[in-house]
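Notes from the 1:1 (GR / supervisor)

We went over the backlog. Supervisor wanted to see one worked example end to end before approving the batch request, so GR pasted a single chain during the call. The sequence is below; no edits were made to it. Supervisor asked that the structure be written out right there so they could see what the output format looks like.
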Amino acid sequence: MKFTRMILLAFILTMVACGGGSGQSASQPQTTAYIQNKGSDTMVNLALAWAEEYQAGHPGVSLSVTGGGSGTGIAALLNGTVDIANASRQIKSEEMQQATSKGISPVEHVIARDAIAVIVNPENPVKELTLRQISDIYSGKINNWQEVGGEDRPIVRLSRETNSGTHVYFLETVLRLGDKNNTTLFSTDTLLLPSSEGIINEVRQNPNAIGYDGLGYVPDDLKMIAIARQSGDPYVLPSIATVIDNTYPIARDLYMYTAGEPSGAAAAYLDWIMHSDEAQVIVAELGFVPIK
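Structure output shown during the call:
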């Protein structure tokens, strides 16, 4: 199965108890380091898998991992309620300004890469789209599958909610085609869903739907669209290999942010994530792209 290391718990907590017995005059408590980690829903399964593996080898460390979206994680970091914020997009300029006003200097750590897959129901005969066609679909210029070689059916557009880093990345890279001066927006009838699972379930049930999701979340029973950067270019399916060789056009870095340079347990944990083979193997197992 794709998700051999997917963790079903929202929190992973490992407590190390103080040793003691009737023959001991005093116990020697073992200090436990706590790391609060919050943010991107795209990254939550990866972060949970990392936390479980790390705690197994570091019983003096306790990790709490929750999702909520990249914006939620960064807001928590700036409010001082988490040690590490997970983000599937880079921190925004307004978030940096807010950090500066609080005397915080966020530090960015690239911890993996990801492909964003455009997905449709298997009944949909469309197999290939250009970035421009996807932009025109999501902006409302194209409204029927027949316009892109499909059947005469209305297109149902699905997107993540606006607090999602995946939503922001898709808006900037696909709808706006990477043009910082482009102000294109999602069509007003786009259905905004709170989770990757919500998009998966809706595409599975609706033959007219189109959605997008991180590659590691796409199940085998849905169809991924091969994408060309522009008309005349080759159509490429998302995979670890096509992200590494830069042929797949919708790929991104994944980030962890700290409030300043990390220290102590958080620094050791981030070093393990970015530099250990053990951590980067988990990245590939969950359908993401290792940085090593």
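Supervisor's comment: The CA atoms of residues 126 and 148 lie 7 Å apart.
Batch request approved.
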